[in-house]
Each structure stands twice: as structure tokens, then as C-alpha cells.
Amino acid sequence: MAFPASFSHSASLQLSASFHGERTTSTLLPSSTSSNSCPFVGSQLAFSASLRGSKTMSPSRLVVYSRRLSGLEEAMKMRREREQRERSNTKFTRPLPLRRGRVSPRLPVPDDIPKPPYVSTKELPELASEHQFHDAEGIEKMRAACELAARVLQSAGELVKPSITTNEIDKAVHQMIIDAGAYPSPLGYGGFPKSVCTSVNECMCHGIPDSRQLQDGDIINIDVTVYLNGYHGDTSKTFLCGNVNDILKRLVKVTEECMEKGIAVCKDGASFKKIGKRISEHAEKYGFDVVERFVGHGVGKVFHSEPVILHHRKQLDLKSVIYF
């Protein structure tokens, strides 16, 4: 899975003061009250002092109100402040908007390779309502399908460089999969015309390979799914193309860490909602937001099935989400 993200700006600080006769009270406040953008932990910092004529303020009259922070909280606060300073000092050149290229005809698959049932229709299959449970033999077949998908994904990533087209990546992936006696699962799924999904820059997922050449500084997610011995193996990864901006590198790094955080939650008896909560917490810590419209799903004999896994802590109307 890929966990796409968007940028949020750090809060700047402003100093507000009120004057009451000879007494002045100043409070340091974040310019935004959003908990997502505020770099501070704990209550607001305030100080008060009494000024009498031209007399020098006595240190004994300076009072600081604050909540005591634990060592861990203080370390996290300092780290967030440092990272926000680094982000504000990094120049970001936004890539040119994507333009659709020419989509070539779908590639043929040998007749002797078994195909999933949806290939015979262009209708988008419904999300299977039943959870899939696999016996030992089924798990071994899933493992074989996933290992093949992982090998193909690694080889596809090695092709990523400026000037190559996503259509060329699709051809290479298609050939590797059929050479292994498997079927490229995306091909023909709901009419999808290609054997792999290639999502460049702002395209969050399910990008269709075409004649567009990758540019120096692009990022590209390659989503490989194979159908082998009656089971689907599904995987994806985001790759850097050439000299990528530090902000995009951080986006890719944090997104991969989010995936690992979500995986770490998974164990017998764990709640599904903890996966999305852990992912959201990690993304927001680095100033990113999780795209709520896309979800994870079960995989096996059926390409997409329950359970639906949210990548965000909030509850959504599942009729509005897209599984991938």
C-alpha cells in the first residue's frame, strides 16, 4: 500500500500585549490554534511584570507560568521545532502539473495462463463482503504470489530514471509477470487498460501508464499485483527519479514509516482502527495529512475484499472510499 500525503504549514508566532495602567501582560501565542500545526506541547507560556515609572523591573517580579514537561515530551518538542525550521528553510520547486500522454493498446496474455474471472467483463467488481480465510495450502500460494510481485516491483523500480516512459515500465512489468506464468491483475479490472499502476507526483494512486517521460525530480509509485495459481499478490512502492527535492524525499520517507507503523499494530486480536490511528499520528507529527478517500483491503482468491482498512483515525462513510 501507499499512503499518500499533503503538506501543512507550520505555525508562526506572534506576541500580543495588553496594557492596564502601569501593569502590562504579554502572552506568546501560536498564530494558528490548530493542533496539527502548533509546534508546542503543553499550555501557553505567559509572563507578567510591573513597571513603575522609570524603575528597572525587578527579577523577583517576573513570573513564568508553564506546565512541567517530561524529558520525553521536551525532547519531542525540540525535535519538532528543529524539523519545522528545516522545512521553512528548504526551498521547494513544485513540479509542473501532470499532463496525460498517449495510452497504447493493452498487451496480450497467452491463452494458457489462468485469468481471474473479472477479465471477461469491463464492469468494476463489487468489494467482496466476506472476509477471506486461508488454509495452509492457500497461505503458501499467497506467499508465492506475493514473492513474485515483490521481485517484479524491485525490477520495475530499477528502471526508474529520467526520460523513461511509464508505458515502457508497463511493458517490462507485463513481460516479467507472464514469463513467470502469472497474470497481471490490474489488466482488464473494471476496464483498466494496463498491467501495472504508475502514479507520478500528485497522482495519488491507480495512475495509467502512458507516453509521458519521467522528469528529473519526479516521484513515482509503482503498484504491482499478480494472479498466480488462483491467488493475488499485491504490493507497491514509491521510487525517486533523479535528483529529488528534500521535501519530496521526506514525504516518501515518512510515508514508508507510516506503513511500517501500521504493520507493527497487526497481531491477533488487534483493532483495525488502531492501524489508521497510528498512521495518522506519525504523518501529522511531520506536518503531513493522510488522504482519507483511499483504504486498504483483504486479498487472496479475490482481488479486493473485506476487511476495509482505514488509514486515518476518523470514521468515514465507506460508500465514498476507494479500495486499492
From TrEMBL:
<comment type="function">
    <text>Cotranslationally removes the N-terminal methionine from nascent proteins. The N-terminal methionine is often cleaved when the second residue in the primary sequence is small and uncharged (Met-Ala-, Cys, Gly, Pro, Ser, Thr, or Val).</text>
</comment>
<dbReference type="GO" id="GO:0046872">
    <property type="term" value="F:metal ion binding"/>
</dbReference>
<protein>
    <recommendedName>
        <fullName>Methionine aminopeptidase</fullName>
        <ecNumber>3.4.11.18</ecNumber>
    </recommendedName>
</protein>
<dbReference type="GO" id="GO:0006508">
    <property type="term" value="P:proteolysis"/>
</dbReference>
<keyword id="KW-0645">Protease</keyword>
<dbReference type="GO" id="GO:0070006">
    <property type="term" value="F:metalloaminopeptidase activity"/>
</dbReference>
<dbReference type="Pfam" id="PF00557">
    <property type="entry name" value="Peptidase_M24"/>
</dbReference>
<keyword id="KW-0378">Hydrolase</keyword>
<keyword id="KW-0031">Aminopeptidase</keyword>
<dbReference type="InterPro" id="IPR002467">
    <property type="entry name" value="Pept_M24A_MAP1"/>
</dbReference>
<dbReference type="GO" id="GO:0004239">
    <property type="term" value="F:initiator methionyl aminopeptidase activity"/>
</dbReference>
<dbReference type="InterPro" id="IPR001714">
    <property type="entry name" value="Pept_M24_MAP"/>
</dbReference>
<comment type="similarity">
    <text>Belongs to the peptidase M24A family.</text>
</comment>
<dbReference type="InterPro" id="IPR036005">
    <property type="entry name" value="Creatinase/aminopeptidase-like"/>
</dbReference>
<dbReference type="GO" id="GO:0009507">
    <property type="term" value="C:chloroplast"/>
</dbReference>
<feature type="region of interest" description="Disordered">
    <location>
        <begin position="96"/>
        <end position="117"/>
    </location>
</feature>
<feature type="domain" description="Peptidase M24">
    <location>
        <begin position="140"/>
        <end position="312"/>
    </location>
</feature>
<keyword id="KW-0479">Metal-binding</keyword>
<dbReference type="InterPro" id="IPR000994">
    <property type="entry name" value="Pept_M24"/>
</dbReference>
